[in-house]
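Researcher: Quick one. two chains, 1265 residues in total.
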Amino acid sequence: MVMEALLKIAVLFFFLHLSIPVNSSPSQHLQIINAERRIDLNSHIIKVYLTLKVENSGTSPTSEVHLAFSPAEAGHLAVVKAAATTGKKKKKTYVPLDVKSAEIPDGPNGTKFFAITLLTPLGKGESITLEVLYLLTHSLEPFPEEISQSEPQLVYFHDSAILLSPYHVKEQTTFIKTPSARVESFTVLEPTKQAGSELRYGPYDSQTPYSYSPVIVHFENNNPFAVVEELEREIEISHWGSIQITERYKLVHAGARHKGVFSRVEYQTRSGASGVSSFKSLLAKLPPRVHSVYYRDEIGNISSSHLRTDFLKSELEFEPRYPLFGGWKSTFLIGYGLPLQDFLFESPDGRRYLNFTYGCPLAETVVDKLIIKVVLPEGSKNPSAVIPFQVDQHLETKYSYLDIVGRTVVILEKRNVVPEHNIPFQVYYNFNPIFMLAEPLMLVSVFFLLFAASVAYLHMDISIRKRHGTEQINHVWSLAVIVMLVCNTFLS
Amino acid sequence: MAATDAQSSLRHAFGNVLVFFILILIGVLAFSIRLFSVIKYESVIHEFDPYFNYRVTQFLSKNGIYDFWNWFDDRTWYPLGRVIGGTVYPGLTLTAGTLWWVLNSLNIPLSVETVCVFTAPIFSAFASWATYLLTKEVKGSGAGLTAALFLAMVPSYISRSVAGSYDNEAVAIFALIFTFYLYIKTLNTGSLFYATLNSIAYFYMVCSWGGYTFIINLIPMHALLCVVTGRYSSRLYIAYAPFVILGTLLASLVPVVGFNAVMTSEHFASFLVFILIHVVALVYYIKGILSPKMFKVAVTLVVSGGLAVCFAMIAVLIAMVASSPTMGWSGRSLSLLDPTYASKYIPIIASVSEHQPPTWPSYFMDINVLAFLVPAGIIACFSPLSDASSFVILYIVTSVYFSGVMVRLMLVLAPAACILSGIALSQAFDVFTRSIKFQLPSLSVDSHVDAGGASSESVGPDDTVKTDKTEDAHKERTSKKSRKKEKEPVEKPPSKSQIKKRLSVLPLETSIIAIILLVLLGAFYVVHSVWAAAEAYSAPSIVLTSHSHDGLHVFDDFREAYAWLSHNTEVDDKVASWWDYGYQTTAMANRTVIVDNNTWNNTHIATVGTAMSSPEKAAWEIFHSLDVKYVLVVFGGLVGYPSDDINKFLWMVRIGGGVFPHIKEPDYLRDGQYRIDSMATPTMLNSLMYKLSYYRFVETDGKAFDRVRRTEIGKKHFKLTHFEEVFTTHHWMVRLYKLKPPKNRIRGKIKKTKSKSTPKTVSKRKGLKRNPF
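Model:
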């Protein structure tokens, strides 16, 4: 019960891409008094913090506020979160709100909407401050598309200076934060101001619904554009006390493609000026008490990794075999074991559940396709997964060490995963502990039969000729075999 | 009598159980001593050839056996390709593939790589068991156990069978010993059952390794020896004739051997002896049915007629053989018969370090104290000489010769040395312990039974030998009887008394000291073998380590380069490198290579050698004509890795020059010396290999000091016009260059007008180059 309540909160807190869109038209009585957007372009995951002050100027109370995204943004949207703020500056409290996909019939073509459900309907004349955070991936377009080793990486960022919104916006400002002050160019839409690494568009007054004014910012961004094209995490549960995790990565540098020469001498001697957009090491945050970590690829171990463990977390700092320049790819595999009691629990109704973190352990990476495979022990039944967001689920069967009926594998697939998705999920299943003994018993019986067969063979005379003098030998042999048999039974 | 009989048989049975457990322990030892490479490094395939075998096994496990036979591999020898199914000895891959298939059908999901890595240690355990069986047939189970123990950890064999060394020899040594065992077994028993098994074991050996020619020559030699020394018996006939017929039929089933099994000179000895043994058998048969007088007449008749026919046949045969240029022998076999052959005619064979003759220290390194025990073992084999022991003597003599020709054949010597050392040691122990027993009165009561029990196994074969000598006509029957164990108790009393008679009792102190010394010798051997297994032979050679003051340093450059190639180049790109790296490139990087370690096409290798030794422009043209996109060179100058391409360069020149005469070795040598410093010849400094190795090397330390050659390089600042560096590994050990695309036509035209001489020389070179494509 407690768990369910917790889950509900999680679901409330984290909701997007619901398959059934809510079909409703936005209340035309709402208007946005003040909108402030802060776009953080530091990494290749773009974070947009949107503060909206919404007022109900109509007559009827409304409980939904809509957000609009242009088609380009909608395709790259990874996470949308919303919270209502109450209180003044110091004593601000955030109440997470439910966000779901919505459709508005009269919206412009291709515009995607999300509806924020307010906890209490907004009455006439009332206003509320909403904090919205959304993350965009793959939205920085490298230009030039190909760079040589000594060049920095320049990227385009396309957006609108004016917030796309189904509502009338009274006043708005957009701040764009670039990683450095090196901004090649940007669209000027007065009033526009650049100060250091911050670019300000606005304030603009009184914009009609669905106003849009495209701007382009062309700036330098040398942060690693580490994208995992596909990540397969296999979580294998063994009730003998361990969870074994195998993660298969297909990593790519998604920035401007490397062109021409790669000179090791330049890379080694002029590390500050050469290959600035490349990266050579990555950081994976693993759970605490991790053990037997390995890091390898299809041709063997990769020896460049360091593991730091403490009580709260383990950090694996590792380098791919070679530094990754734009467009270069690498595949590798990280595996580790975890103690079972940290992640597997028994729910009050007798079912067992795995509580594990979704998402990718690598810091600051986008995962285009994440496949999580939870391999349940042999003999477990009725698996069900509880995940706070939308994923594709299906079941498979896997045969591992000496399996006969196979293990049920719960597969959870999701596209466009960012570090914000690293939240716990649960897989419930029924398991009878007697199945733990199936394989040892099987081995015991196989060896038993083997020895019994050899005893029988030694005592039987199946040859055509008569044999003499071998009985004694056979007795000793069968004695030895029986001893082994007993040992085997006891040992296993 | 009955009580003692029961007691002795119980003792016997107890001995058998003990032997069984000792053998299990020896197997475990043989397996685990080879795991140093996994523990110290990682579970990975080693070196060069194992990567090819691994790749073939992967293909086999993925596509199945029929696709494997028909596999045309277009990833190697571009543009020729290679028919893998017809040119590979399939034994190893089929063995590992079957192993993998069995494990997977039992739902034990081991990867192909794991199975491949551990195939060699598993088969080492089998090989030591086979050694036990073989030595037991020769000198009893005491010698067998000692020999098995020796073989389990003989460094020479360890060097080829550590975990990860997934090469043909890994299973072939087992097959070799087992074939010999079955031959001896047949010889001792005269059983057709074992003769058939022998052919099957031989078939497995033919599947596994080209070294099967050793068997098909050694066994005929032994048969011949037996016939010549008057040891012909029907057992010999049963051991030999079915083996040749069945063995040859089975051998020709292996695609890579095929009709070679009857058409090349390596196999002729067996056929000649086959004919001879039939003649001898006929003679013995006729001798049996005719009276001595009649027999003499018959002999004169047959000899006069038969000899003429024989000579005529032999003459025809010799003429046929002589008509082929290499006398029907393959290059490798010829270089065995004539050790100077390879260095004279085939630089490719000579360039392989394992084809060089060994040095004396390598004998000590590889077989250690066995080298001292072997002579004693030979003496032990002569007293008394039996069919089996004469075979072992012949085996050691021939293998000593072959190991003297090629280092890699030390591997064939190792089992022989182990067998003989086992015999020597066990006989020595036998003598010493017995003399101790005789002199300690308290033990003398037991000594009768003990001596009988301990030597009963060792006496077994001797018995048959004695019966052979005495009862010529009935020997088949008696041997058959002696095979059945029922005969043993009957024969024991005479043999026991014989031993007692023979026993030369040594002084007690001498015996004790001698035993202590022998144990020390054995201990030394164990220490040395473990050291060799742990330190000398466990490095996988694709990853290098060095210990410096700040800890262990790992050089993983090869895999870095291969991983880069596999992920960041197009799937169909062709990579040119010296042939050493061909197998690894296809297996690890999955890219098409021009030449690889199979070295079947000398011209193709010479083309690459020529390109490497040519100036940049000419090299670019050769590579371009081969559709090469990347060139891989191995360079050890920065970290001091000695087996790099600059050190192999002279072989490239030699092999290239062997086919394309415009490459002349003296052009690369200054006063006969190979050097890369400022005294180097301009041809050397302008060669592609030099340029690709040292491109921008001077920028690392400012002086361009080569740590392998311990000198500053000759030409430090130069630019590449037709190649561009695309990747260099962390320690510069592998450098990858990309061929620049051909220049635009318009610019080429301008150049032509500018300098008319260049195209001329190029075209001239083209004519000379005799490029096969």
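The first helix of chain B runs from residue 2 to 32.
Researcher: Thanks, that's what I needed.
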